[in-house]
Amino acid sequence: MIKVAVCGAYGKMGKEVCQAVENASDMELTAKIDIQGDAYRTIEEASKNCEIDVLVDFTQPKSIYENALYCLNNDIRIVIGTTGLKDEEIGQLKALSEMNSTGCLIAPNFSTGAVLMMMFAQMASKYFDNAEIIEMHHNQKKDAPSGTAIKTALMMSQTKSTFKKDNCPETETITGSRGGTSYSDIQIHSVRMPGFMASQEVIFGSSGQVFKIRHDSTDRKCYMDGVLLGVRHVYQKNDFTYGLEKILG
Ligand SMILES: NC(=O)c1ccc[n+]([C@@H]2O[C@H](COP(=O)([O-])OP(=O)(O)OC[C@H]3O[C@@H](n4cnc5c(N)ncnc54)[C@H](O)[C@@H]3O)[C@@H](O)[C@H]2O)c1
Questions:
Q1: Cα separation of 230 and 107, whole Å?
Q2: How far is the CA of 58 from the centre of ligand 1 (A)?
Q3: What beta strand segments (E) does 66-178 contain?
Q4: What gap in Å lies between CA 144 and CA 237, rounded to an integer?
């Protein structure tokens, strides 16, 4: 049995993960960690009282780096669903995971459909010179743009180093109208409002055609197969992985 702790256990994602772990025949939920509710307050406190093979973190951008450092320095494998890590922080976690041979998976999106969207966007980037990303989330989301949008742009940039900005020169009459510029000059636009859970469109254009790839998450259960796959992966491999697409069969 893989002994799993969930950090952020009383959050929207954490509650689903606790239930999924409890339902998995090869896993045991040994600790709930959260700054609210009936839970251990810190990973340190939980690890002194419970056995933890793998910790799953769905907390918030401002705590994830410290949480991950604690785990990787204390022989606790970690599956990171929390978004908001900076590139340099991801690089430092990779180095620490490899140095200590402690498994670490960072996945900005655990749903298979969203991972396929990213892979298809990466493929399509070869054939289109213009692309923009629109991501739409519920209005309690703490970071913008989403980790999924950033990862999508990163994967697209691995196919094409620069997308065209041939509608320039342009004047932004209202600041921010054109979104934020990411990898390979891909513009990302973030929508936040009630009604959405997590959606994203990648839009490609060329003369006479528009090609859209869209994914909608309508229930947080869509992430759970990916999270459990991630737990099994870090438990067995003890390596560093960024992106669920690297471990999907
Ligand atoms: N990777 C994915 O597939 C995926 C999917 C959905 C959400 N997310 C990300 O997961 C994170 C959580 O999302 P959510 O919607 O569940 O948020 P949420 O606000 O509902 O839950 C966060 C939980 O973490 C707890 N928490 C905050 N700081 C903590 C700390 N330092 N230690 C312990 N607990 C702490 C909060 O009390 C809360 O219960 C966000 O970063 C979100 O972007 C990732």
A1: 9
A2: 4
A3: 77-80, 104-106, 130-137
A4: 32
The answer to pTM > 0.85 is: yes
Q: Given 32, 141, 215, 233, which residue is catalytic?
A: 141
What distance in Å separates the CA atoms of residue 134 and residue 193, rounded to the nearest whole number?
14
CATH number of the structural domain 2-106+220-246:
3.40.50.720
Residue 198 CA from chain centroid, whole number:
12
So where are the chain's domains?
2-106+220-246, 112-217
- Does 94 qualify as catalytic in the annotation? no
Please answer whether residues 80 and 74 qualify as being in contact, where contact means their C-beta atoms are separated by less than 8 angstroms. no
Q: In the chain, which residues have pLDDT < 70?
A: 166-169
Identify residue 101 by its one-letter amino acid code.
S
Architecture of domain 112-217: 2-Layer Sandwich (3.30)
3 is catalytic: no
